[in-house]
Amino acid sequence: MQIQWYPGHMYKASKELKKILPNVDLLIEILDARIPFSSENPMLADIRGDKPCIKVLNKSDLADPETTKYWQSFLEKDKGVKTLAVTNQKTHAHHFSKAQALPDLCRKMIPIGKNRDRAIHALIMGIPNVGKSTIINTLAGRTIAKTGNEPAVTKHQQRIDLGNGIVLLDTPGMLWPNIENQNSGYRLASTGAIKDTALEYEDVASYLAEYLLKKYPERLTERYQLDEIPRDEYEFFNIIGKKRGCIRAGNHLDLYRISKIFVTEFRDGTLGEITLETPEMMKKEIVEVNKIREIKAAKKEARRARRKSKKK
Ligand code: G4P
Questions:
Q1: Which residue from 32, 129, 136, 195 has its CB within 8 A of the most atoms of ligand 1, so it is best to mutate?
Q2: Cβ(89) – ligand 1 distance below 6 Å
Q3: Residue 58: CB within 6 Å of ligand 1?
């Protein structure tokens, strides 16, 4: 899965969403509980209007439980939004809801009434690898073929009748990650949502290590049996690289190999339950992205004005 995002894809996807919206009763957006901001559809809030929306924080087994709760209360401040922290991992059955809790929440949000003489139609969406298919299969009780994960592929919308008064609509191309924000790009790569070829392992590992050294140092000291917290990510990789035998000829650190080990251990939960972002980080980054956008727009406008004056 190579993701290549162009403004054209975003435009097409948002146009598609606007077209479908009047025919759906509610939206189900699957988020990665480790990155609820970076895995959300950045345009949904604007397009959704007051359509009810369930934000499912999936893979909660891998996320920091306290931060997941905090994210849930933050997200639910938005009108018409309810959240559900779920996991598809059997071993975590006692900590979080299973996907089966979703239909009940759908029914609660759209009670039977004058507007409900038909099944609830729920549009389900989520970035690649977030666990959308796993959830759909769990709810349907059978394996449903995946819709296209690539943006703008022309595959057909799937209509999955759950047989309990709820129909899921799974529409291909209905996804676009939040990559305008560089931090989100690194976090999406850290969790495996962006394919490895798109970003260098070493860069992703450095980003991840810098964050974990600040926010979860005890997880690192415990996992890698460190006597003290390393000063920075370079020292960290040097120490754990040696411990793991990631050494090349000439006694040099094999940064690629240790980076890959480290990122893999984060992704599969070996480092413990970790969340990579908070609502506060999100607010700060949105301000930064808006500033960059304004600078870009001003530059574009200046170029346009220069071209115009040359023509005169
Ligand atoms: P998608 O349709 O959104 O692209 O995602 P999909 O359901 O295919 O799931 C992507 C990967 O995420 C799968 O792992 C799946 O097992 C894993 N996954 C889904 N839900 C959860 C969850 O709640 N917790 C955890 N820890 N993992 C989850 P995979 O390695 O690609 O495949 P496999 O291990 O299932 O063979």
A1: 129
A2: yes
A3: yes
Closest ligand 1 atom to 60 CA: 23
Mutate to test the pocket of ligand 1, among 39, 68, 130, 134 (most ligand atoms within 8 A of CB): 134
Are 147 and 170 contacting, i.e. CB atoms less than 8 angstroms apart?
yes
Kindly state whether residue 226 falls inside one of the protein's structural domains. yes
Q: Say which CATH number the domain at 164 has.
A: 3.40.50.300
- Which helix (H) or strand (E) element contains residue 81? strand 81-85
Nearest atom within ligand 1 for CA of residue 149: 4
171 and 157 Cβ atoms separated by less than 8 Å? yes
Residue with tokens 């759909």: 136
- Alpha-helical regions (H) of 49-127: 65-75, 101-109
Rounded Cα distance between 196 and 199, Å, is: 6
Q: Which domain holds residue 205?
A: 200-267
User: Quick one: 28 and 163 in the same domain?
Assistant: yes
pTM value? 0.90
CATH number at residue 251: 1.10.1580.10
- What is the Å distance from ligand 1's center to 277 Cα? 21
- Give residue-wise pLDDT tens across range 123-168: 999 888 899 999 999 999 888 877 655 544 445 778 999 988 999 9
Over the Cα atoms of the chain, what is R_g? 22
Question: How far is Cα of residue 237 from the mean position of the Cα atoms in its chain?
Answer: 26
Closest CA to 59 of 150, 192, 159: 192
Q: Which two tokens stand for residue 210?
A: 């810098």
